[in-house]
Amino acid sequence: MFVLALVFLLPAVSARANTVQVPEGSGPVPVVPRGVVCGPAPVGWTIGAENRFVRPPGPDEVGPRVAEVKVAADQAACSRSTNGVTLIATGQFPEIDLASVAFFPDEGRLEMKGQHLKGLQILWQTPQKSGQDVCLDPQPSGKQEQCVVPVGRDLPGDTSLRWMPSRARFDADVVTYDENGTLVDANGFVLRPARVVISNMFPASGSVDVSQGPGRVALVHPETVISVDCGQARCEIAEGVVAVRSFSPIATTVTVRLRLGPRFFLAHGAAQEQVVTATLPLLHCPLAVVSGPPLRDGDATQVIVRLDARCVSGTRLRWLTDGRPAEVLRTEKSSDATFFLLATGRVVSERVTIAVTRADLDGTVIGVVETATIPAPRPRVTLELPKHGPIDFIPTNRDAVLTVVGAGEHARFVPLAVEGAYAVTPAPDHRSYLVRGEPGVTGFVSLRFGYRPDGLPSEFAGTSLATLEDPVQRVLREANVPAPFSTSASGDNALIELVCADAQGKPHRLEPGKENVIPFAERSTCRVLIHRERLRPEDGQQEVVLDVDVTAADGSARGSAGLHERMVLRPGGDVRVIPLKGGTRQFDHIVVRMAHVLDETRYTLGPLTSDGLPAVQWSVTIEGGRARLYGTVSIPAGLYRMTSPSGQLTLNFGVLSRIVKLDRRGKESLLGLELGLMGMGLLQPANTTPYPATLGAVGGVGIRLPLGGSDTAIAIHMWGVYEFRGRYAPDPSSPNADASHWAIIFGPSVSIGNVGANL
């Protein structure tokens, strides 16, 4: 706005400008008063004499119409110069027929004739606003062209108008040359219409309020009036209004005659007049809007007006809003005035006129007020489920907290219920509201809000003066919130239970999160109970996964006994019973886990996702014995005979029986008692030193480490052995000496197999 104003206020300066514009095909023009234009020139542009002049491209030449060139004090300074000038090749200067220029400020258009009008730019400016418009499509009119340029509507008649050729800029630092290379002064672009045609001179109210002394008639275009006459009354123009005084006390109207200045005309049908005459009613009752500016583009807009009590007593009134009937919704009286709540309907204009007439005086206007309207504010809505975070829908099975802002500093929005869609109640904190959709209703709905400004008369506290809709439509559906399964084993509110028989065969609820042991005989009695009747309607549908994993005592999985089932639970219905296949052996370990499915399309997850969805898990072990007796094949790789004759036994093979202690999970202790038969030194020939192959009965202890949950293990043994062999003389010098049949051997082995029973 400020830059455009400079175009009108500042003449062209001779100092170096930031922008130089000249029509296409014109002669060279100076770019800088001193210094040089640094090359090279843009495509189509030519740097002229003394390197200060530039010639623009012709209309048919290739090259940019807006280009940048660098300038410097001399050629030597070009390489380090940072100064530049913008070059603009404008369109051809138009030839405007000034006698044909007609300005219609109320209708927002400018008409003219001439030559080369296409692309012509029109700049208009008033003290309050300004704008720029272009002649896009001139039409032939005889030997000339005719163009209608749209400008701003409701402009004053003395609006400043200027023209510029196409592509030209409107800035204070722009220097403009014509096609002859002559500098054009800013005043050379002033456009003075030959005719200014206005549509009306008086506001829509068309009345004179004389209740407080001299009346005042506002003029739409006071700048066009040079004189005024009011017949028998005395009137004069002051500060843009007609002041009326010295009228008859019984007068109900006043005739105002205005004479317009040269070039100004009032459109009266097809005719145009310079004398405007109007008969205006005199208003004796002050009328005021006490509810603030009405909202524009709102539904069910209402206003509260105040009328003096003396104007109401014994009078039947009719109300008008911009000439349309307005319904009186409510009336409240005070000692000195009466307040009326009026339904104005939808307001679309920037100003609205409210008038009250007396029905008993042929519709004589006794009060009128004109007030500005304001754009309807747009509600900014947030819906949230407590403890679950924001949502983008209206739940039908539980309350959502509704927060709305955007009404402004001196007003507020109040949510309104929509019958058959949703209901609204105040929240306990009195700062927000609770909204819930009607049960069973589906579809989309826009939230509706009442607009309540502050400062209303006390009689109208809590009155909404307009109804506004949230621009976002929201779906009505259930809110599905992950329901807790409950960790209580004895409570009656658990959604999921695991029940197994105890030692007496009676059903027993197992407690989640702890190690549970059931008798081996009752291993097939376990079942999962899903209490759908305990699911709350406000939690909605639940999508859960039931996993059952069974592992043996050695950690191997029993796939046939496992279970994986995904299911959707709905509130209500009977208890669902899911029997478990159970374990088949002692010390089998059963893990039962129920968890919600992480699905954002189904659940309103909110901040729960940071802590994980609700889940519950049971751990069950099938009871077994305290010890285990089993047989295994042992392959010692290298036993060492500790008694004489001592030495290494290179290959050994045998069968052992082993008894070990078991813990509560059926895990064997590492140390066990062993008894068996062992072939020792099998690779050594008989009667060789240090020891021949032999068979022995072994007994002792061994430490056994299973490998990966299989029946294969690595062990280390300490045995006493009795050897089944003949006579053996370990010392050749004493052939009659016989080695003892008893010995102690020690060494590692690999054992395969675990065939036995728990005790």
Characterize the structure shown.
The protein has about 750 residues and is an all-beta fold. It has 6 domains: about 1-195, no CATH class; about 210-285, Immunoglobulin-like (Sandwich); about 285-375, Immunoglobulin-like (Sandwich), CATH 2.60.40.10; about 390-455 and about 465-475, Immunoglobulin-like; about 495-620, Immunoglobulin-like; about 625-759, no CATH class. About 0% of the residues lie in helices and about 50% in strands. The chain is built from 2 helices and 60 strands. The strands form 13 sheets. The protein has a 7-stranded mixed beta sheet, with no helix packed on it. Residues about 1-15 have low confidence and may be disordered.
Shape estimate: elongated
Arithmetic mean of pLDDT: 84
* Major sheet attributes: 7 strands, mixed
The number of domains: 6
From the structure provided, what is the oligomeric state, counting identical versus distinct chains?
A: single chain
For the biggest β-sheet, the strand order reads 12-13-9-8-16-23-24
Low-confidence stretches: 1-15
Assign the structural class, choosing from mainly alpha, mainly beta, alpha/beta, alpha+beta, or little secondary structure: mainly beta
Number of helices: 2
What's the count of strands? 60
What fraction of residues sit in β-strands?
over 45%
Q: In percent, how helical is the residue content? A: under 10%
- Write down the Rg: 52 Å
Task: State the separation between the terminal residues, measured CA to CA.
Answer: 101 Å
In short:
Helices cover 2% and strands 48% of the residues. By secondary structure, the protein is an all-beta fold.
